[in-house]
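Researcher: I need the complex structure. Ligand is manganese (II) ion. Inputs:
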Amino acid sequence: MVRPQIGLTTYALGRNGHYELPGVYLDAVYRAGGAPVMLAPVDHGQLATDWVKHLDGLVLTGGYDLDPGTYGETPHPSVDNVNPARDASELALLHVALEEGIPLLAICRGLQVLNVALGGTLRQHLVDDVGHLVPHRTDSDTAIPHAVRIEPDSRLRDILGVDKSESMSWHHQAIKTLAQPLRPTAYAADGLIEAVELPDHPWCIGVQWHPEMSAAQDPIQQRLFDGLVSAARRISDSLPLS
Ligand code: MN
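Model: Output:
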């Protein structure tokens, strides 16, 4: 069976001159039956329209902070490694995926990009707002698990098959104002929105956590990638051959 092609956005160009992405993202897509394709922001998004046309699905990956200017705010001192090329490229890819109904999984920063693209805003440094009741990020590079409660009657609940999950977390920002078209579908114990979906789209899921980090050991987290690839296969099979 032909593997659906799933695009994954990479980090911005690093100081080492490399475009990079942790291999666990590609592994999770591959296990799900997809063919992972890395999309680097080489031209501020000019290529995005063409790229997406050749893809069956898209993953907006984690990474550094969006420029707060994209949602009309000035940066908090903690805002880290803003990159206009990555912001522009992911916003362009996302808009095409939304218009074309291309299945989309938005992870961590990706969920934040999705919320901002549709008119929402972000908490720039969430411990200032919600404190330390739930650890969303450690001081080291190691992610930390916390529980999320999943809304019944949501697409996310259908995909994961559970009402609660232990999810790997590594973020210092989060949704402040939810974009009007999005539905919140999971929460942390401190009330933060941990997942969203777009009801008017064939398959558009955003999670504030990192399913790729535990998907190799945790079949519940792998189901997000399985769901994305299944949706990509359904939609690409239903399109007429051109
Ligand atoms: Mn979290």
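Model: Summary of the prediction. The chain has eight helices and eleven strands.
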